[in-house]
Amino acid sequence: MPEYICPHCKNVINDDEALLCLFCGESLSRHSSGAIGAMRAMPWKWIFVMIAGIIILSFLFSIG
């Protein structure tokens, strides 16, 4: 059973699925490793650029 250490209060957390520290309530800063987690970790600017790019490409494919 892996143990995690809270970066704020330095207490040991034994819960594998905990997102908040059980002692101080602060975030454990865990990000998912999937595609959605990668998008959440990205800056918002790049998400808007990707959405705009998809819209422009779909428009170009629809008229061509």
Report on the architecture of this protein.
The longest helix has 20 residues, at 44-63. 42% of the residues lie in helices and 6% in strands. With 64 residues, the protein is mainly α. It has two domains: 1-30; 32-64. It contains two helices and two strands; from the N terminus they run E-E-H-H. Strands 1-2 form a two-stranded antiparallel ribbon. It is rod-shaped.
Q: Which short descriptors sum up this protein?
A:
mainly alpha; single chain; 2 domains
Short summary of the structure?
The chain is mostly helical and 64 residues long.
Please describe the topology of this protein.
Elements: E1 4-5, E2 12-13, H1 35-41, H2 44-63
Number of strands: 2
Number of domains: 2
Amount of beta strand: 5-15%
Note the main sheet: 2 strands, antiparallel
Structural class: mainly alpha
Task: From the alpha carbons, calculate the radius of gyration and give it in angstroms.
Answer: 19 Å
The number of distinct helices, counting runs of at least 4 residues, comes to 2
Query: How confident is the prediction overall: mean pLDDT?
Result: 79
Task: Summarize the amount of helix as a percent range.
Answer: 40-55%
The rounded distance between the terminal residues' Cα atoms is 56 Å
Order of helices and strands: EEHH
Shape: rod-shaped
Uncertain regions: pLDDT < 50 for 5+ in a row? none
Walk across the major sheet and give the strand order.
1-2
